[in-house]
Amino acid sequence: MTLGEFLQQVRENAGLSVDELAHIVNLRPGLIRAMESNDFLPCGGDTYARGHIRNIAQITGSNVLELLALYDAEHSVDSRSIHSQLVDNNAAAIRSENRKLSWKVLVGASLSIVLLIGVAQFAISAIDSEPATTSIVTEEATPTKSPTPSPTASASPSTNSSDASTVNQQLTLSIAATRGNSNIDVVIGGVHVYKGPLFQGESKSFAGETSISVFLGNAGDLDLTLNGEKLAPLGDRNQEIRKTFRAK
Question: What does pTM read for this prediction?
Answer without folding.
Answer: 0.35
